[in-house]
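Budget justification aside, the reviewers requested a transparent look at the raw inputs and outputs of the sequence design task funded under Objective 1. We therefore reproduce one unedited record. The lines immediately below are the structure tokens for a 393-residue chain.
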């Protein structure tokens, strides 16, 4: 009788668990230097979780519950505290995020690794994260800045620009991208007249712009944030007449900045992680139908990060951190049936039947090396106040 009671209790507990929500942390900079971008990123990630839930195919009726937290993008202590609350209060099993590289590294080392929580970042691009001590818990759907730096250098050489001044936000992201760019540009025969950091949150950047102007350069490369110091540097350069053409890294791609300054930035250009093809088109249609702005930066990568978390759990047969960490690379890559946005329900069915999936997603996901995306970049021009695609790299 005792064994029967225990078995009945176990069945009851299992049935209760199957009906419970599975909390997934969505930690992004809802305040700070990229706050105009993160709402669309969060909504895109939540779009994937909603698709999984509405299919009814996830682990015998379990549902995924997104829980948002603010990384601030720049305050590592605040980001760490926010991540700790996600674990202690909300009992999350995985994190979609973080966003900016410095806070992502802080959460990884201070919270995720000690607690065994996997992270899938859609936008943390510092090359330093490739070698972080992550115990197999860190993945990213955006490519490393080691590649971005080379792509931007190639764009400049293709445009016959040989001398460039560089300003970068004074953190892991900015310094990593600036170093990667300078090494690639100089290897290709270009010259960096001056590479100087700027601090976010200042009211006046005239001194920084003056030093860069004195050093010279055909254009000013801006590796910062569109809602903070990067925008401030461009505004100060335009006001003083020091530079009128800018090459911009991925953190500078933002609608709000373009609405304010775009008409004065004619002929400027940049690069941002992006994708094209069937998966991208499927995501765009899905986002439009749901009322989500999927055309902002890192929205595709955010959808993919959340989708991969769900598929990894399904592949592992349980809604646990261990299942995410152990199965994410498998569902992201070959072999298996290719899965596009809008096909997550089908992917869950395949996995439930013991089959394999190769998640292509919105950004043509292919994870290499230490769980990071190989990635493609969209080269664009600023034309009549809009971003006009030139080509993909």
């Amino acid at each position: 009788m005792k064994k029967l009671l225990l078995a009945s209790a176990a069945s009851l507990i299992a049935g209760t668990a199957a009906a419970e929500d599975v909390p997934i942390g969505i930690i992004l900079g809802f305040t700070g230097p990229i706050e105009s971008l993160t709402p669309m990123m969060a909504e895109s990630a939540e779009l994937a979780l909603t698709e999984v839930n509405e299919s009814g195919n996830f682990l015998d009726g379990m549902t995924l519950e997104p829980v948002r937290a603010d990384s601030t993008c720049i305050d590592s202590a605040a980001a760490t505290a926010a991540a700790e609350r996600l674990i202690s209060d909300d009992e999350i099993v995985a994190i979609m995020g973080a966003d900016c590289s410095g806070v992502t590294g802080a959460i990884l080392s201070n919270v995720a690794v000690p607690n065994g929580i996997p992270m899938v970042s859609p936008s943390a691009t510092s090359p330093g994260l490739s070698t972080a001590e992550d115990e197999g818990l860190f993945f990213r759907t955006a490519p490393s800045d080691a590649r971005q730096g080379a792509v931007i250098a190639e764009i400049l050489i293709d445009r016959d620009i040989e001398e460039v001044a560089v300003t970068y936000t004074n953190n892991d992201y900015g310094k990593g991208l600036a170093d990667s760019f300078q090494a690639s540009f100089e290897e290709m025969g270009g010259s960096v007249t001056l590479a100087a950091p700027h601090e976010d949150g200042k009211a006046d950047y005239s001194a920084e712009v003056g030093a860069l102007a004195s050093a010279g350069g055909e254009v000013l490369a801006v590796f910062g944030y569109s809602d903070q110091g990067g925008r401030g540097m461009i505004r100060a350069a335009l006001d003083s007449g020091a530079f009128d053409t800018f090459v911009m890294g991925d953190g500078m791609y933002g609608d709000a900045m373009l609405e304010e300054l775009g008409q004065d930035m004619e002929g400027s250009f940049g690069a941002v992680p992006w994708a094209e093809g069937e998966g991208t088109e499927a995501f765009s249609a899905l986002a439009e139908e749901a009322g989500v702005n999927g055309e902002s930066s890192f929205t595709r990568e955010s959808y993919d990060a959340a989708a991969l978390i769900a598929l990894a759990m399904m592949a592992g047969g349980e809604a646990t951190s261990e299942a995410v960490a152990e199965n994410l690379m498998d569902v992201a890559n070959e072999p298996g049936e290719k899965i596009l946005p809008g096909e997550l329900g089908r992917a869950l069915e395949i996995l439930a039947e013991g089959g394999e999936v190769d998640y292509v997603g919105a950004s043509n996901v292919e994870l290499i090396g230490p769980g990071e995306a190989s990635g493609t970049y969209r080269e664009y021009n600023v034309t009549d106040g809009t971003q006009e695609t030139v080509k993909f790299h």
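The chain is about 45% helix and 20% strand. Confidence is low (pLDDT under 50) at residues 1-18. Computational costs for records of this kind are itemized in the attached budget.
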